Amino acid sequence: MRSVRICVLASGSGGNCLWVEAGQTRALFDAGLPLRETVRRCKDAGLDARELTDVFLTHEHADHAGAAGVLARKLGVRVHATRGTFRALRDAPPAELRKPLRAGVPVRIGELSVMPIEVPHDAHEPVVYRFGDGSVSAALVTDLGCAPPPLWRALRGLDALVLEMNHDLHMLLDGPYPWSVKKRVRSDHGHLSNEQGAQLLSRVLHGGLRHLVLAHLSEHNNSEKHARRAAEQVLRKQGGGTSLTVASQARALEPMALHAKQLVLFA
Q: Are 85 and 60 a contacting pair, CB within 8 Å?
C-alpha cells in the first residue's frame, strides 16, 4: 500500500526539521538542526539519516536552513529552495546539489510530489509546502505573518497538517521582547498567533483531516496550554476524529504513516 510517513524532528526558534518519506524518497523539510543532532533525532525516531535524498527549505533563516550546506556536502543530498532563499543562505550547498524551485510549480521526486506555496514572511521568497503521494497529502505551514486566501485554498483536503501557532498575543505584548521585535512578530510578515492559526485551521478543517501538529511555539510568548486551547475550540466545532499533538523543540515526535485517508502511529 502506498503511504507517506512523516516525523517532526524539531520545531521552534532553536531549529526546525520535518522528516518525510514516500516510496524510496527520504526528505527533510527544513534543516535547522546541526548535523549531529539531526542524525540523533532520526535515530531516536527509528529513522536513518543516511537514507536522506533531498532537503526542502522554506526560507533562509538559520533555524530552518542552517544545516542545509553541511547536509549536502556530508550526505550528498539535493537541496530544493527558491532562488531568493539560495541567494540569502549563509552556507549554501554545492552548486550541483542546488535545485531551484518556484512557488506554484510542483516538484516530483519518485513517489513524492511537493507543491511550494508562497507566504508572507520577512525572508527572501519564502514558501510553505504541501506534499503527498497522490493518495494522501500533508502540509508544513510555519513562518508566515498572515494567511491570505490563496494559501488556505491551497491547503484544502489535507490528511495531516503541521501548523504554526507561534504566540499568544497578550503574552507577546506583556513579554520581554523589545517593542521593535514585538511589532515584527505581529506584522503580516511575522508569525501566526494562536488566534490566526486557529482561523486558518477553521478554513481548511474537514472530516478527513486525521492529524494536526501545532508547531513553532514561542518559548517566551506562548504555552502549550494556550495553543491547544485555541486549536481545540476549532476542532470541537468540527466534531471529527482529528488527533492533536504539539511539536517539541527538545525531542522528535512519534513517526506517523498516512495510508489512504487513515493515519497509523508507529509504536
A: yes
Question: Does the predicted model carry a pTM greater than 0.90?
Answer: yes
Sheet with 137-141, strands from edge to edge, namely: 107-109, 112-118, 127-132, 137-141, 160-164, 211-215, 243-246
Residue 91 has pLDDT above 80, yes or no: yes
Task: Give the C-alpha separation, 165 to 229, whole Å.
Answer: 11
Please report which confidence band the pLDDT of residue 87 belongs to, taking 50, 70 and 90 as the band edges: very high
Q: Mean pLDDT across the stretch 117-132?
A: 98
Largest CA distance in the chain: 52
Q: Show the cell assigned to 64.
A: 530552518
User: What integer pLDDT is reported at residue 1 of this predicted model?
Assistant: 57
3-state secondary structure 86-123: HHHCCCCCCHHHEEEECCCCCEEECCEEEEEEECCCCC
Domains of the chain and any CATH numbers: 4-261 (3.60.15.10)
